[in-house]
Amino acid sequence: MPQCQMSKEYALDIGHIDGRGIARPSAVIDFMQDLATRHAGEMGLSEKVMENNGFWVLSRLKYRLNRPLHSYETVRLTTWPRQIKGASWYRDFTFEAEDGVIGSAVTMWAIVNAETHRLLRPKALGISFEDQIVGEPEMLKAIHAEHLQPCFDRVVRYSDIDVNHHLNNVKAVDILSDAFGLEDDETRWVSQMQVNYLSETTCGTTLTLARGTGADDALCVAALDGERENVQAEVVFSEL
After folding, report:
1. What is the mean pLDDT of residues 46-55?
2. pTM
3. ∠ Cα 80 78 75 (to 5°)
4. How far apart are CA 174 and CA 16, in angstroms?
5. For the domain bounded by 146-239, which CATH number is listed?
6. Residue 216 burial by CB count (10 A; 0-12/13-18/19+): exposed, middle or buried?
7. What share of the chain in percent tops pLDDT 70?
């Protein structure tokens, strides 16, 4: 494993699970985001970002799980910063439970100036480290959805907003998940999911959720503000 890493255990409680007693996709992403934030702080990176009037932005993520996470189960996440690619910061994860390693994930982050909203390159802020590449690392690409068809509208409200007064990353995944159709087919669960955060979404915005297809006929869901896709996901299901 890499030299610079951090691990933490997370217990799935009643607020993380769906009606079948397994973790919602948003719970998985909540754990990933929390651990990444904690590790960046421990590394002293968050302080450097704040000194330069910047803030972290999660731009893309992808996870794969071999099996669902169950209610009141404890899962151990480990994360490490993989490498800096231009303005993008890649961070990798593993998931472990009592039965061993059950999944992996990758996230891509950027640093944005709080006033201008321009990207800040990490190396320009004095942030650098040796690459920590394990196995065959995945690069997160754009999601190309075809034949998007509107499903329903959803207004972004108070409980959806983060400290930057934008749609919270985890809440965005809950909103996208409502378009997966899992309430009509409880035999499936989300074993793989990629999310791309494309544009900021503010309180009061009416999002149109739409479904389409992506690579290898995977399900694609997008949340649109007018004709602009603000956040999108590509999902692979497995049978329970």
Report:
1. 85
2. 0.94
3. 160
4. 11
5. 3.10.129.10
6. exposed
7. 100
